[in-house]
TrEMBL record, chain A:
Protein name in UniProt: Glycosylphosphatidylinositol anchor attachment 1 protein isoform X1
GO BP terms, alphabetized: attachment of GPI anchor to protein
A Pfam family that the UniProt record links to this protein: Gaa1
The keyword Transmembrane is assigned to this record: yes
Transmembrane segments: 31-52, 464-486, 526-544, 556-574, 586-605, 611-627, 639-661, 691-710
Keywords: Membrane, Transmembrane, Transmembrane helix
GO cellular component: GPI-anchor transamidase complex
Gene that encodes it: LOC105034940
Domain of life per record: Eukaryota
From TrEMBL, chain B:
Family indicated by similarity: Belongs to the PIGU family.
Protein name: Phosphatidylinositol glycan anchor biosynthesis class U protein isoform X1
GO biological process: attachment of GPI anchor to protein; GPI anchor biosynthetic process
Gene behind the chain: LOC105053901
Keyword Flavoprotein: no
Keyword Kinase belongs to the record: no
Pfam family, one: PIG-U
Organism: Elaeis guineensis var. tenera
Transmembrane regions listed in the UniProt entry: 7-24, 88-107, 197-215, 260-282, 294-313, 319-340, 347-364, 391-413, 419-445
GO cellular component: a single term: GPI-anchor transamidase complex
Pathway named in the protein's UniProt entry: Glycolipid biosynthesis; glycosylphosphatidylinositol-anchor biosynthesis
């Protein structure tokens, strides 16, 4: 009677709903499904360089290279003259204001509106939670210090003859006025020659803003300070402005605030319209000589955001097809020589050949060398996105939804040579002019092309639709394994302990089953407690960064000590997770659900972090089993599981993982305990969501993993 | 019975937690989240409306304020009182904390009544062993704690919206009906309808509650039991007792319904009278109806929220708009009758189902609606103990409530996403609510079936 009744509702449910039946089928084969999905996920990740497509310009309005460049030898001469002026200034001992003033005077000379933007550097502060808000750096300026040092950006604006002043294109050249290098002078010269050319052309429909950014406190600081003031009008009642003004008065004897150009007030902040795009221009002299000038593109902004792919496309198109430059993007050098990757490349090459012989329409033609280079580039692209820290001052623009890239030009020959310098100027100038002309044609914001992509080469990309597959396959087993304990059979198994005592008494039996469906609440309590602990650990550095003069090693030790004691205190208050009513199967399933939600969220905030994190978290979630329960399986299996568990427990812990990685790359002698603190500090200063991921998703997952391993 | 340890401690902790949070409104900035504040409930809009009224303009001028003029008179003065060192809207937030507390207490009292009734009917059906075996929880305490500690309730309370008042009125109406106080029930119902229109559908469960009594197993069971008792056991004592209770269970009188309707009309006249006084010379009642209830029904504000209507009406062609307005508004009404027929023996549960459905289909939903129906769900913890997919629903609610702000951020601030991203979470949320309603109703019916099985065997 009892069994009949038990089976009846189950059978009824299975017959009525196909989707439930399908789900139950998947769940009952969860081991097989999870192994297959995980392996497929890894393979899909390795195949991404093969699946990369060639880039194409999808916005028709851009029309790159449709007009002949007007940048001529005369502009080159102007650039040379300007560079010479700057180099002459360099020899004069000064207050650091000469070069900004010189730049300003030249800007005014070509008829642009000029002003000087003063800003204070901001202190490193703990604000990881601000990554979410619209204004990324809400910096409170400390009152007493830093009056002595503030930076001065010189900004010039050319009003477009054919525009309405609603849109602008920004050109940024970072330089250090205290110690200007030849390469920085060259970038200023290049920017100036383009600027003077643009002041004469008639086709300009968007204002052009040239920001000569004072990079004495870092390139990013100056640009982000300028952007902040650009986007948030400051009124005089606000304390921040007052502060700078007070500083000026106290420094008035230095005549730093008496920069006036032709009698105009050059301190008033001026604006052009909304920014359509921004180009950060840098010149870098490389040690090794190449036959051609090269261009390196940096695009990664904070939290894995990328500029619209079209912007990179036009730069690449003009640089390669018009100016004959060699375009590069960052790669991870050590991967290029790795034997392991090369052997994978060989296999992939062979597979591609087989695939092509099966069906010639499949155009997955990739050589082993291409594969290795593509993977190294992809790895670098992924790494920089995952860290969540911008690779240059272009990152500041992305926080205001402006697409920006850094163009790093490096000449093939020595810059001392006048001829090669002129040729370099000509190529660089024509490239920038072409890009600005294209962006000038733009009717709307960049929106046609991709925002979510990885680059595997300057002209190859993997779009979101493709790379999501690898991640989706990897995390697909998580929900299936998470619901496995709740599927019909297991549920009854969980609750039979008491039901067996009164066989034949259907009433209690049924109620036991029904109570069983809420049993996970105890496990949920443990998981919640662990996350609460993670929040405490997350916020600890905020208090610790208030303590002055503390070394990273001490900080790290204090952090670990306080975190451990917090965990113990939480145990005392809320009870140990090993109490009777918490079964490890349920704990595992709730832990997997939490990890799944966390990874899913992170994949939307910053895909690369989630992808890299999933490579560790997913095996951890799937393989976990109390060490004492291994007796049930065969010996070799037991040993294998045991080693897997222990290895995962070590590399799953973020500090040890970092130490091992660092030890492998730099040698174990140079690794210290404080390294993790330094790294974490680096992340939270940049508002990286990776810090949140590490402490709110990864760390609790690892803690629960260890809990389950040690489960009696 | 599983006792809830230190109930009052938990309640006090919930209140203290809210008080702590209302000290940092700028840091949380919940009032500007589309999930928390809707055009109807935003306190910032209310402050704007109050300012307009103070400068002798209609509070409905422009398209800022869409709430009741009574709220304007009560909360308006509180929005401008600001003492030194206190955050903005502090006194309003303080009031909302108190309102939340009272709501929780009303849920507690309702739960006690439901429990008593449930025990009585189970005892009558000779199923008291079922009560002991199931180790059931004190529904009132459980539900009020669920309500108080639900993160959605906390967010609503702290996020400076007027939703706590709407929820309070709904709970007041249900409590009034449960304790058979027709004037109180009518008052709650009228004010709740006046504030947010959708509680108007609660008239069905309220009248059922007043006329038919509290939630009990289906009346068929009592009849069956009666016939069994009269047939098998000749004991006069038990017979007398059973017929007595049986009559009580079947008793359906129209008198309380008329009573309720009478009171409802009195209260609505009174509310309209007060509103007209408050709006004297500033645009009459007609404008009020157009700007409050009309605004709700015609879905004029298409700014994104967690519902599904804004997206639809942003896409739909203008000449189909009226047709779809009728379709969508009728959608809620279509479900009233079948549900009422199937669940007429459990009016409180029916009220929960109605609230869940209306929060799914209403034009400007917020998490405050979810907070209300999830709180009421706790009242049926014993009956719904066998609910399927509980874990899935739990994870789903957590996932969606975290995903929604992330998608919004991606769309509005980063510009790398688009409206579809945010709408996707809206759809997921609607699906979750559907699963919740379907599962809870089917579990409730299964529970009734189980009772019948126990009586027949």
């Amino acid at each position: 009677m009892a069994t009949e009744e038990k089976e009846k509702p189950k059978g009824g449910a299975a017959r009525s709903r196909l989707i439930v039946r399908l789900g139950a089928f998947l769940v009952s084969h969860n081991l097989f499904v999870s192994v297959v999905c995980c392996i497929a996920g890894f393979i899909a990740l390795l195949l991404l360089p093969v699946l990369a497509k060639n880039t194409y310009i999808s916005e028709n309005a851009l029309m790159p290279g449709s007009a002949n460049p007007a940048f001529s030898a005369q502009d080159v001469m102007e650039a040379n003259r300007f560079v010479k002026d700057i180099i002459d200034q360099r020899t004069i001992e000064g207050t650091g204001i000469e070069i900004p003033r010189l730049v300003g005077q030249h800007m005014a000379g070509v008829g642009a509106e000029v002003y000087y933007h003063k800003f204070l550097p901001h202190k490193n502060q703990f604000h990881p939670l601000h990554f979410f808000s619209c204004t990324p750096n809400t910096v409170t300026v400390q009152n007493n210090s830093s009056c002595a040092s503030f930076g001065v950006n010189s900004v010039g604006i050319i009003r477009a003859p054919r525009g309405d002043g609603k849109e602008a294109i920004v050109l940024v050249t970072p330089y250090n006025p205290w110690k200007i290098e030849l390469s920085e002078a060259l970038s200023l010269g290049l920017a100036f020659s383009i600027f003077s050319l643009l002041s004469q052309v008639s086709w300009l429909a968007k204002d052009v803003v040239w920001l000569a950014a004072d990079s004495q406190f870092g390139e990013y600081t100056s640009v982000s300070a300028w952007l902040k003031d650009y986007h948030s009008p400051v009124f005089f009642s606000e304390s921040r402005k007052m502060n700078v003004d007070v500083c000026h008065e106290s420094n008035s004897h230095q005549d730093r605030n008496h920069i006036t150009v032709k009698g105009e007030n050059a301190n008033a902040f001026r604006r052009a319209g909304t920014m359509a795009a921004a180009l950060v221009l840098k010149v870098l002299e490389k040690k090794e000589r190449q036959e051609r000038d090269s261009l390196t593109i940096y695009a990664e902004a904070s939290n894995g955001q990328m500029p619209n792919l079209d912007l990179i496309n036009i730069v690449h198109y003009l640089a390669v097809h018009r100016q004959g430059l060699r375009v590069k993007i960052a790669t991870i050098g050590s991967l290029l020589n790795s034997v392991w990757l090369r052997s994978v490349g060989e296999i992939v090459q062979r597979l591609c050949r087989v695939a092509k012989s099966l069906d010639p329409r499949w155009k997955y033609d990739i050589t082993s060398a291409d594969y290795v280079e593509g993977s190294a580039t992809l790895a670098s692209s992924m790494y920089h996105q995952a860290i969540g820290v911008p690779t240059g001052s272009h990152g500041a623009f992305r926080d205001y939804q402006v697409d920006a890239v850094t163009l790093e030009l490096s000449p093939g020959f020595s810059l001392k040579n006048e001829n090669s310098q002129s040729a370099f100027f000509l190529r660089g100038g024509r490239l920038i002019e072409g890009v600005i002309r294209s962006v000038n044609n733009l009717l709307e914001k960049f929106h046609q092309s991709f925002f979510l992509y990885f680059l595997t080469a300057p002209n190859k990309f993997v779009s979101v639709g493709v790379y999501m597959i690898a991640f989706a396959l990897l995390i697909a087993p998580l929900p299936i394994v998470a619901v496995a304990p709740f599927s019909g059979k297991n549920e009854i198994r969980l609750s039979t302990d008491k039901g067996n005592q009164t066989p034949g008494y259907t009433c209690t039996d049924e109620i036991e089953i029904s109570i069983g469906s809420w049993k996970w609440l105890h496990a949920a309590k443990v998981v919640f407690m662990t996350h609460l602990w993670a929040v405490i650990v997350l916020l600890l550095p905020y208090f610790m960064s208030q303590i002055p003069y503390i070394s990273p090693t001490t900080s790290m030790l204090v952090w670990v000590a306080v975190a451990t004691s917090a965990l113990l205190i939480l145990y005392l208050i809320l009870g140990s997770p090993y109490s009777n009513d918490c079964e490890w199967v349920l704990l595992k399933s709730v832990m997997i659900a939490a990890a799944f939600i966390g990874l899913g969220l992170m994949s939307i905030i910053n895909f690369s972090t989630a992808q890299i994190g999933a490579l560790i978290v997913v095996p951890m979630c799937l393989i976990v089993r109390p060490l004492k329960r291994h007796k049930e399986v065969a010996l070799c299996m037991r040993v294998m599981l045991m080693t897997c568990n222990l290895v995962l427990a070590v590399i799953g812990f973020p500090p040890t993982a970092l130490l091992i990685l660092k030890g492998l790359s730099e040698g174990f002698g140079r690794v210290g305990i404080g390294d993790f603190w330094v790294w974490a500090e680096f992340l939270w200063i940049w508002n990286s969501a990776t810090y949140l991921y590490l402490l709110l998703v990864h760390l609790p997952c690892w803690a629960l993993y260890v809990h389950i391993l040690l489960h009696p | 019975m599983t006792r809830i340890r230190c109930y009052w401690g938990w309640v006090a902790a919930a209140i203290a937690f809210r008080l702590l949070l209302i000290c940092f409104p700028e840091n949380l900035n919940l009032g500007s989240r589309p999930e928390v504040a809707t055009p109807l409930t935003s306190l910032r809009r209310l402050a704007e409306g109050y300012w307009l009224k103070q400068s002798s303009m209609s509070p409905y001028a422009g398209s800022m304020y869409h709430g009741s003029p009574l709220l304007l008179s009560i909360l308006g003065p509180l929005t401008i009182t600001r003492s030194e060192g206190q955050p903005a809207h502090f006194s309003c937030s303080l009031m909302f904390v108190i309102v939340d507390f009272v709501t929780a207490m009303l849920i507690h009292a309702t739960g006690q009544k439901l429990m008593t009734k449930c025990h009585q009917s189970l005892q009558f059906l000779n199923l008291s062993k079922l009560v002991e075996a199931s180790g059931n929880v004190d529904a009132g305490k459980f539900a009020s704690l669920v309500f108080l500690w639900n993160p959605l309730t906390i967010v609503t309370c702290v996020g400076s919206t007027t939703t706590p008042i709407d929820n309070f009125m709904v709970v007041l109406a249900i409590f009034g009906a449960c304790s058979r106080l027709a004037p109180l029930a009518a008052f709650g119902w009228v004010i709740a309808t006046h504030l947010s229109l959708y509680p108007v559908i609660l008239i069905v469960p309220l009248i059922l509650l007043l006329c038919h009594g509290l939630d009990a197993p289906p009346s068929k069971l009592f009849q069956q039991k009666n016939s069994d008792a009269s047939g098998s056991s000749p004991s006069s004592h038990s017979h007398a007792k059973s017929t007595q209770t049986g009559i009580q269970a079947h008793y359906f009188s129209w008198r309380p319904a008329l009573h309720f309707l009478l009171w409802a009309s009195i209260w609505s006249c009174y509310v309209l009278f007060l509103s007209s006084i408050s709006l004297k010379g500033l645009g009459g009642l007609l404008e009020m109806f157009k700007k409050t209830h009309g605004f709700i029904l015609t879905v004029q504000d298409l700014s994104p929220n967690i519902g599904v209507l804004w997206y639809f009406f942003a896409e739909v062609f203008d000449f189909f708009r009226n047709f779809f307005l009728i379709v969508f508004n009728m959608n809620i009404l279509f479900m009233l009758l079948p549900l009422a027929m199937r669940l007429k023996h459990r009016p409180c549960f029916l009220a929960f189902v109605y609230l869940a459905i209306s929060s799914m289909l209403k034009s400007y939903p917020s998490v405050g609606d979810a907070a209300l129906y999830l709180g009421l769900l706790g009242l049926f913890a014993n009956e719904l103990a066998g609910m399927q997919f509980s874990f899935f629903l739990f994870c789903g609610y957590i996932g969606v409530s975290l995903l929604s702000p992330v998608m919004h951020n991606l769309w509005i601030w980063r510009g790398t996403g688009n409206a579809n991203f945010y709408f996707a979470t809206g759809i997921a949320y609607a699906c979750l609510q559907t699963v919740l309603v379907v599962e809870s109703v089917s579990t409730m019916l299964k529970y009734d079936r189980m009772l019948r099985k126990h009586i027949t065997t």
